[in-house]
Write a structure and sequence with these properties.
alpha/beta, Uracil-DNA Glycosylase, subunit E, six-stranded mixed beta sheet, 6 strands, globular, binds uracil
Length: 225
């Protein structure tokens, strides 16, 4: 029988107590995403964009107009990750520029942030036809590049926008109503899911929950959590 390594167990215990003090109440062991975020020297965002090139790694290249890489501050403390480009984003080549994007901009203003201070991107970089949900092969094709973006920015906090982003990043099928407003860990980077701005446009009564999540984000960025 294998001997227990009590020092290692004690170390894990101390680390869990530390996370609890930091306000992290849930830990998701997200192998496919989390373990891949490495310590090695990261590429710059420009290098990552160049690596993507005129990407034809999945079928979405046939129907997209523009690959929407992401935009914002390379040194952002806060990274926001949505699902994938919609019509307006596909046309303009920028993330969150349609109606949902305008609401996202307002939500950021609410906690004193401008778009240029954060980094905004999506799980997948090309618009699915008729805005259908992204398919597994499409997510897989984009995954290494999103991980490299996270490595390049090394944000203090990631906000996963909506069900799809939260489920993809946390490798879970749990509902957003359960996931939102709590902190999770992705290889040392904290993630907090909240409702997608497009969902808020359809369900404005949910805005108060997003304000609560935004307060948690603001406190975390201020070093209070
Ligand atoms: N919805 C998203 O998830 N991402 C965008 O860029 C725009 C709308």
């Amino acid at each position: 029988m294998e001997k227990l390594d009590w020092d290692a167990i004690e170390g894990v215990k101390l680390h869990l107590e530390y996370l609890k003090e930091m306000g992290i109440r849930d830990i998701v062991c997200s192998e496919r995403w989390g373990h891949s975020i490495s310590e090695k020297k990261a590429f710059t965002l420009k290098e990552i964009r160049d690596q993507l090139g005129d990407c034809k790694r999945c079928k979405l290249h046939r129907t997209r107009k523009t690959l929407v890489f992401g935009e914002g501050n390379e040194k952002a403390k806060l990274m926001l990750i949505g699902e994938g480009p919609g019509y307006d984003e596909d046309v303009q080549g920028r993330p969150f520029v349609g109606k949902a994007g305008q609401l996202l901009t307002n939500i950021l203003h609410h906690i004193g942030l401008q778009r240029h201070e954060v980094y905004i991107t999506n799980i997948i970089k090309c618009r699915p036809p008729n805005n259908r949900n992204p398919e597994p092969d499409e997510i897989e094709s984009c995954r290494p590049f999103l991980l490299k973006q996270i490595e390049a920015i090394k944000p203090q906090l990631i906000c996963a926008l909506g069900t799809f982003s939260a489920q993809a990043l946390l490798q879970t099928e749990a509902k957003i109503t359960l996931l939102r407003g709590k902190f999770y860990d992705l290889s040392g980077i904290r993630i907090i899911p909240t409702y997608h701005p497009a969902y808020l446009l359809r369900n404005p009564e949910k805005k108060k929950e997003v304000w609560r999540d935004m307060k948690l984000i603001a406190k975390t960025l201020a070093g209070e959590l």
